Amino acid sequence: MALPEDHADGAPVDPLREAAETMRAVRDRCVWTQQIDHRALVPYLVEESAEVIDAVEAGSADELREELGDLLWQVLFHAEIASRDAAHPFGIDDVARGLTEKMVRRHPHVFGDAVATTPEEVLVHWNAAKAAEKRERTSVLDGVSSHMPSLALAQKLLGKAAPLGLHPVRHHSPAETPGGAGGLGRDVVSHPTSEAELGDALLGLVGLARAQGWDAERALRERLRMLTAEVRAAEQAQRDLEE
């Protein structure tokens, strides 16, 4: 389908509106797409999100542009599915409008009279606005998804626990020396002797990452990319020897 640069009346085409209309046409006319519901679409959302992360961390600008488009398609897809829900319909315009209203509320230093001269002050405004929006929440853990990758979830939960004075790392051996990341004994971090101690060691390392301002999930992803490259190089070397 050729996408026109202008409408018949000469008005410029809004690319986002064009994408939404393309999604609507696909939903109407594609047999496969017609069968998909929100739940069935989730694996594709996870996959596209991962590909955006890859493009950010190891790709080019062109790759990032393409992957962001694929992720946007998922948003349009979910909104189009929702627009046809008989009980609680909403469309992409409702999604965009809600997003704009939320961002205005959470940036009173941009759209209001509040003042924020440091990132920490911005976070105070953000959290205050979020708390006002989510008054029904009774726990700091409400809204934290259990579907996050384990390292990222650990870092998130440690951040939620810290203001409560909690250091949720258990010690399984009386010989452990207190201290280290999150109060975890050095020997447990270096030489866990059970699966439980391994869990403590991992949580302790995530605590260390958080204290240093590091992203534990990204750190492991980057090291795994290096390992992937090493495996491929070793395979190529083996093939070269066999030729």
Automatic annotation (TrEMBL):
**Top-rank taxon:** Bacteria
A family per Pfam: MazG
| Membrane-spanning residues | none
CDD domains reported in the protein's UniProt record: NTP-PPase_MazG_Nterm (cd11528)
Q: Domain NTP pyrophosphohydrolase MazG-like spans what residues?
A: 38-111
Q: Which GO terms describe its biological process?
A: dATP catabolic process; dGTP catabolic process; dTTP catabolic process; dUTP catabolic process; TTP catabolic process; UTP catabolic process
Q: What's a Gene Ontology MF term here?
A: nucleoside triphosphate diphosphatase activity
Q: Which InterPro entries match?
A: MazG-like_dom, NTP-PPase_MazG-like_N, NTP_PyrPHydrolase_MazG
Q: What is the protein name for this chain?
A: MazG family protein
Its source organism is Microbacterium lushaniae
